[in-house]
What we know:
Blueprint: H1 2-10, H2 20-32, H3 36-49, H4 54-66, H5 70-87, H6 90-110
Amino acid sequence: MNAALIASLEKLLGSPRDGALLRFSLGSEHLKAGDASRAAGYLRDAVERDPGYSAAWKLLGKALVDSGHERDALDAYRSGIAAAERKGDKQAGKEMAVFARRIEKTLQDRG
Length: 111
């Protein structure tokens, strides 16, 4: 089912329906399918199109962690926290702050 959904969504790329939500949806589906690197690409597109899209920042951070890019994930979470604060999205900001602290601890423990 996931491959069919991804194919359907990819057909919309470059169409009038192409936007941050489509890119977020593609990133989400690729992440569910286990392709974190590809997911990160779509999620980067989503936040470039809508820098205030806190859910996209949060999922981008997860995709980056899953693809082994903790420092980039930390940057994404920090940007997401700022976006969430501007939007008043307190829950997303709190969640990303927790994820960011975990990464900071992991990076600190590695030395």
